[in-house]
């Protein structure tokens, strides 16, 4: 009896690397997640967890390692690089990339490269609410790390090289534009501690977390796995999204590591720019600010907490 035909390896690889984030074009990403190809039969055909629509979330969850959270000291947002780096080298920072992808009725800042989103409308997947976004108009919209960086740190990322942490923090697979209130209620929680208030989005949310953890080799805790399994019981055919960026960004990582070293503080002349006052509070006390990203060099002195492209406002 003739052996069953083999699926060409090249075709299988390409199918895995087609991104399925809404609004994102399918591109070759240059990685092959081991967890997504581990259970294949000897004949080379896809296993039972693969469907024409993609890889099922529940079997992929079952393949993830289960371990307790690591109490590794030293977590800070800066461990994952300068916020919203231009990792994909398209000339725009990651935050604006995701706003352009996820918002509707997007408006861009005039006389700039097509990057800076000034306004748009969001159908928030976490709350099912319609939210108007206006840059500088308050924290209505955040870019959420679906697998929170604090959770990633405690489930494997603490031992990574900076380049991989930078990649995770800027990977479109792990990013969603969402309502700021829901994102801040979530904080660094995993699925055992927080799920979107919108029940209709919970299956997709959990599937995306599973996809990210499989791609980057992160583990889940026992209670996290049980919470995910409970959600997926109501949607056994849920498939995981695929694609996103490569799992390492070495050149950007090297630059970012230098950028996130603690700078020497205190007023210092900068060729016509304001001094670095060390904090926005001190800058405002001297009548300085606000500063805009891409316009004022002083922007780089301070942390853009709400990510709106303006500091010391």
Average pLDDT over all residues: 79
How many angstroms separate the termini?
A: 75 Å
Classify the secondary structure makeup into a structural class.
alpha+beta
Query: Low-confidence spans: pLDDT under 50, at least 5 residues?
Result: 1-46, 252-271
How many beta strands in the DSSP annotation?
A: 9
Order of helices and strands: HEEHHEEEEHHEHHHHHEE
Question: How large is the radius of gyration?
Answer: 21 Å
* Proportion of strand residues: 5-15%
Number of distinct helices:
10
**What strand order characterises the main sheet?**
3-4-5
Assembly level: single chain
Helix content: 25-40%
Q: Sketch the major β-sheet.
A: 3 strands, antiparallel
Q: Per the principal axes of the C-alpha atoms, what is the gross shape?
A: globular
What attributes characterize this protein structure?
single chain; 313 residues; alpha+beta; 3-stranded antiparallel β-sheet; two-stranded antiparallel sheet; 28% helix; 11% strand; disordered N terminus
Furnish the topology, listing elements before pairings.
Blueprint: H1 9-16, E1 50-51, E2 54-55, H2 57-63, H3 94-102, E3 104-108, E4 117-123, E5 130-134, E6 141-145, H4 149-154, H5 162-170, E7 175-179, H6 180-186, H7 202-216, H8 222-232, H9 250-259, H10 280-285, E8 291-292, E9 310-311
Antiparallel strand pairs: 1-2, 3-4, 4-5, 6-7, 8-9
Helix pairs in contact: 2-7, 2-8, 5-9
Note down, in words, how this protein is organized:
The structure is a single chain. With 313 residues, the protein is α+β, with helices and mostly antiparallel strands. Helix content is 28%, strand content 11%. It is built from 10 helices and 9 strands. The strands form 4 sheets. The protein has a 3-stranded antiparallel beta sheet. It has a two-stranded antiparallel ribbon with strand order 1-2. A two-stranded antiparallel sheet has the order 6-7. Strand 1 and strand 2 (54-55) form a beta hairpin. Helix 2 runs parallel beside helix 7 and helix 5 (162-170) crosses helix 9 (250-259). The radius of gyration is 21 Å and the shape is globular. 38% of the residues are buried.
């Amino acid at each position: 009896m003739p052996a069953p035909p083999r699926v060409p390896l090249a075709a299988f690889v390409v199918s895995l690397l087609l991104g399925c984030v809404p609004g994102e074009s399918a591109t070759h990403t240059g990685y092959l997640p081991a967890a997504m190809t581990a259970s294949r039969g000897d004949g080379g055909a896809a296993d039972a967890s693969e469907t024409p629509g993609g890889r099922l979330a529940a079997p992929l969850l079952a393949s993830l390692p289960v371990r307790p959270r690591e109490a590794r000291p030293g977590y800070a947002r800066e461990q994952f690089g300068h916020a919203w780096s231009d990792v994909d080298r398209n000339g725009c920072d990651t935050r604006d990339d995701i706003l352009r992808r996820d918002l509707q009725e997007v408006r861009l800042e005039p006389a700039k490269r097509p990057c800076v989103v000034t306004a748009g409308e969001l159908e928030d997947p976490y709350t099912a609410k319609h939210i108007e976004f206006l840059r500088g108009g308050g924290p209505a919209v955040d870019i959420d790390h679906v697998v929170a960086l604090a959770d990633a740190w405690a489930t494997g990322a603490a031992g990574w090289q900076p380049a991989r942490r930078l990649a995770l923090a800027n990977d479109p697979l792990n990013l969603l534009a969402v309502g700021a209130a829901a994102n801040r209620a979530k904080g660094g929680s995993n699925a055992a501690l927080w799920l979107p208030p919108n029940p209709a989005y919970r299956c997709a949310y959990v599937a995306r977390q599973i996809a990210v953890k499989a791609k980057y080799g992160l583990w889940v805790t026992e209670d996290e796995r049980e919470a995910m399994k409970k959600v997926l019981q109501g949607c056994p055919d849920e498939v995981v999204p695929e694609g996103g960026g490569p799992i390492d960004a070495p050149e950007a990582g090297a630059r970012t590591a230098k950028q996130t070293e603690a700078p020497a503080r205190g007023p210092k002349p900068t060729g016509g720019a304001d001094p670095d006052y060390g904090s926005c509070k001190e800058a405002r006390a001297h009548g300085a600010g606000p500063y805009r990203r891409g316009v004022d060099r002083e922007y780089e002195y301070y942390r853009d907490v709400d990510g709106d492209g303006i500091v010391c406002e």
